[in-house]
Amino acid sequence: MSESVDFAAEREGVEKLRHAREWILRELSKVVGQNEVVEQLLYALFSGGHCLITGAPGLAKTLLVRSISQIFHLKFARIQFTPDLMPADITGTEILEQEEGGKRRMVFVRGPIFANVLLADEINRTPPKTQAALLEAMQEYQVTAAGQRYPLEEPFFVLATQNPIEMEGTYPLPEAQLDRFMFNVVIDYLPENDEVAVVTRTTAGKPRAIEPLFTGADVLQFHALVRKVPVAEDVVRYAVRLAAASRPSNKDAPAFVKEWVSWGAGLRAAQFLVLGGKVRALLAGRAHVSAADIKALAHAVMRHRILINYRAEAEGVNVEQVISRLLETVSAPSAG
């Protein structure tokens, strides 16, 4: 651990965080593989961010989220998003209740959103009106119903899965909702050897249950610890410049951005780049964030925040290529 910052008082928490990461990767590799995907999910969970997982059906997205939720001794809820799902099915609704004396009153019955870990399964299978039911909870950690505000118990994570938008029966998430997610993690098919290993393990017998490892207090301690990691101004400036360079309205944006991008990344992109970089630095045994941490997270943070235009699609350019060009174009701090 770098001696530039004194983490003596926090050393126990740092070690617990690192050991937890190694244990989780080892346990989940037996069930689903996808170590890189799991790593990015942990960055989000340890920093308090929400995560969107994109991939075709049958890639164990739901199993992955369920397995991760078992590691935390937290209340877990799952919502299967369908075209007929209503906002009240998520947040809850008021019902008329009769008391002993015959008096009636309205009582709010809490919906599944009142959990610590919420799996929003196939979130883009439901119309925008229902998708928007999550907006307030993801940002304000509360639900408003009939003029009353109901706070959510922290920690609160939304881990949402979605199918590629090219598939039948999907409703693209609005930009405001996409921006609430720290990462958009793309899950793909495993390499052949990894797939063979997972199939062999999962068909040899019933997988044993994953024992809970953390309490809610542990998770909140991790969040506080992550925010104490120092970051140099030039690294923060690099994250800000990277996000700003993706905006075609920015006069200093590269020519390819003005040509291919219709909407760029906002302020949250820079915030999540730095916050995710702090977790990545801690787990790597460093007490400071480097430009390399920012670069490593750029695709996960920005791929759902940059909207390419028809010209880019006509030329066969995708958002991943735009982000890669940005990383090549925007100069990083020399010390990073």
What does this structure look like?
The chain is α/β, with parallel strands linked by helices. The chain folds into two domains: 1-83 and 115-228, P-loop containing nucleotide triphosphate hydrolases (Rossmann fold, 3-Layer(aba) Sandwich); 230-336, Magnesium chelatase subunit I, C-Terminal domain (Helicase, Ruva Protein, domain 3, Orthogonal Bundle), CATH 1.10.8.80. Helices cover 44% and strands 17% of the residues. The protein has 15 helices and 13 strands. The strands form five sheets. It has a five-stranded parallel β-sheet. A two-stranded parallel ribbon has the order 2-11. Strand 4 (92-98) and strand 5 (104-110) form a beta hairpin. It starts with 10 loop residues before the first helix and ends in a 7-residue tail after the last helix.
What's the layout of helices and strands?
Blueprint lengths: L10 H19 L5 H13 L2 E5 L6 H11 E2 L2 E5 L7 H4 E7 L5 E7 L6 E5 L6 H4 L3 H6 L1 E4 L2 E4 L5 E6 L12 H4 L2 E6 L5 H12 L10 E2 H12 L5 H12 L10 H6 E3 L3 H17 L7 H12 L4 E2 L1 H5 L4 H11 L7
Parallel strand pairs: 1-9, 1-10, 2-11, 3-6, 6-9
Antiparallel strand pairs: 4-5, 7-8, 12-13
Radius of gyration: 21 Å
Would you tell me the overall average pLDDT? Answer: 85
Give the helices and strands as they follow along the chain: HHEHEEHEEEHHEEEHEHEHHHEHHEHH
Helix content: 40-55%
Q: How many distinct folded domains?
A: 2
Low-confidence stretches: 1-5
What is the structural class? alpha/beta
The CATH superfamily of the largest domain is P-loop containing nucleotide triphosphate hydrolases
The backbone outline, from C-alpha atoms, is globular
User: How many helix segments?
Assistant: 15
Most strands sheet = 5 strands, parallel
Q: State the CATH topology of the largest domain.
A: Rossmann fold
If strands are numbered along the chain, what order do they take across the biggest sheet?
Answer: 3-6-9-1-10
